[in-house]
Specification:
Elements lengths: L6 H10 L4 H49 L5 H49 L5 H9 L2 H12 L1 E5 L5 E7 L5 E5 L6 H11 L1
Antiparallel strand pairs: 1-2, 2-3
Length: 197
Amino acid sequence: MLLDEDPATLIHHTIGNFNIHPDKIAIGRINESLSTLQQARDLRIRESENALRKLSRNLQTLASQHNETVSSHNSTEHASQIVELDTQKFRVAKAASDLEIEGERLEQELDGLKSRLQQLDLQGVEGDDVMKAKREMEDPTLLKLKVYRSLGIDVDPDLSGSYNRATIRNAQRDVHVVNIDTKFSRFFYANYFWHTL
């Protein structure tokens, strides 16, 4: 063993240092934005519905006036006025339909984001089952080597496959090559590594 601490403890500390708080804050901001967008969409739909009702009332008023004055007006003039009113009604109905479709799309997007947030909450800090299984299947020796590399220590194997040489890079960019010999204790090498780093 190249370090005095248990690899499981090192791994536990490494996992403990993961920070998903910024991700939760970002998701919270997304939910706030979606809520604001939903409110704005609802307001636009209400305004469009009010405009549609107003135009419908105008259409009914004009239709009733048309019925009263049909005898005194030319039928072709009447027809053109009805066509114009129908065109206006069609435009308003299309605008309301477009807003409704956009609202449904935003609702689907919100549902998708809520589902993704729920998945992330269920996965927690350690990730999903696939990631956990992958970590559990990794070789303990590889995990030790990853920890050493993250500290700036590269451990090199010899021809027989045993690790007996370490290359240490510290913050001052100094490089130290250490041949590991069994005549010195692990405590000696641990102290040397820490002082070199």
